[in-house]
Design goal:
- One of its GO terms (biological process) is methylation.
- Keywords: Methyltransferase, Transferase.
- GO terms for molecular function: methyltransferase activity.
- It contains eleven helices and seven strands.
- It has a single domain (7-269), classed as Vaccinia Virus protein VP39 (Rossmann fold), CATH 3.40.50.
- Strand 2, helix 5 (111-120) and strand 3 form a beta-alpha-beta unit.
- It has helices at 12-22, 33-42, 58-77, 93-97, 111-120, 162-175, 188-193, 198-203, 236-241, 244-254, 257-260, and strands spanning 82-86, 104-109, 127-131, 149-153, 179-185, 225-230, 264-269.
- Helix 1 crosses helix 2.
- The termini are far apart.
- The longest helix has 20 residues, at 58-77.
- The structure holds S-adenosylmethionine.
- S-adenosylmethionine (SAM) binds next to helix 1.
Length: 270
């Protein structure tokens, strides 16, 4: 890999790895063949090191499935939507969902990540990649703003500061006539301890915000309405699909309410 990823950009890799390993299960949750192909190109020996093919990251796959299901629902209701897939990493959501040509889809991440995307993932019609930080407001000027918007931020929000998240949500709600915003967050304690998280430390990053009540983000804009939450660590799908050892780990984790809600997937409409 010639393109050097730094800091938060590196966090795309464990999520992709989880999706790649899911695809090798006999009855996968996401069934993303792109994830397996791209992961192999990103890191040829991804399944041969410590924890090999263990499905420790399966909760991230459940999170992805929840975002996919909500996105499918919104696109079925709004076939003229504009999709803003922010902090897309190397996720192949546009290919998994395969929206009709009436949908315009934008994948946005840092320029270095978008460069990798262009190498590893195919182009398609009505699909645009934008290499920019989500915190630079200029990217919104490149997107048609007269149609319903679907904003998806999977695994992104904890890497932004609270003022940046607020600016993002309010500028999207201001820019479009209607839409859905789906994102996931961590609680305040997880944000605070993230500076000691060994994986994040290795990547040279940490979380920059946390919310104990993500539904309360709706108060940031008069048109934002909280719709609901999808389960993650206690998802019946996760418990059903995880191999025995991993299932035990999630069951123990779910006995601790703070851990059970250590990542929350929520959606809003406006
Ligand atoms: C945990 S990864 C998730 C990737 C992808 N959404 C997925 O679920 O597979 C976080 C992603 O957010 C991106 N990211 C973090 N901060 C960003 C920012 N300010 N602007 C754009 N992308 C950002 C990183 O580069 C990385 O690709």
């Amino acid at each position: 890999m010639d393109t050097e990823l730094v800091g938060a950009q590196k966090t795309l890799s464990p999520v992709l790895r989880a999706k790649a390993l899911d695809n090798r299960l006999p009855d996968p949750i996401l069934g993303d063949t792109y994830a397996e192909q791209v992961m192999r190109r990103l890191d040829h020996g991804y399944d041969t090191r410590r924890f090999g093919t263990s499905q420790l990251g399966l909760a991230a796959v459940v999170r992805s499935k929840a975002h996919d299901d909500w996105a499918r629902e919104f696109l079925a209701e709004h076939p003229d939507a504009v999709v803003l897939h922010l902090g897309c990493g190397l996720d192949a959501r546009v290919h998994r969902l395969d929206p009709p040509a009436t949908v315009d889809w934008y994948d946005l991440d840092y320029p270095a990540v978008i460069e990798l995307r262009r190498r590893f993932l195919p182009a398609r019609d009505h699909y645009t990649m934008i290499g920019s930080s989500v915190t630079d407001p200029a990217w919104l000027e490149r997107v048609p703003r007269d149609r319903p918007a679907l904003m998806i931020a999977e695994g992104l929000v904890p890497y932004l500061t609270e003022p940046d998240v607020r600016r993002l949500l309010t500028s999207v709600a201001d820019a479009f006539p209607s839409g859905q915003i789906q994102l996931d967050t961590v609680p305040v304690w997880a944000w605070r301890v993230s500076k000691w998280d060994p994986t994040l430390r290795r990547y040279g990053t940490r979380f920059h915000c946390g919310f104990d009540d993500p539904a309360a983000l709706a108060a940031w804009h008069p048109r934002l309405r909280y719709v609901g939450e999808a389960p993650m660590f206690d998802s019946p799908l996760l418990i059903a699909k995880a191999p025995a050892g991993t299932r035990r780990m999630y069951r123990i984790m779910n006995l601790l309410p703070g851990m059970k809600r250590s990542s929350r997937i929520v959606r809003f409409r406006f």
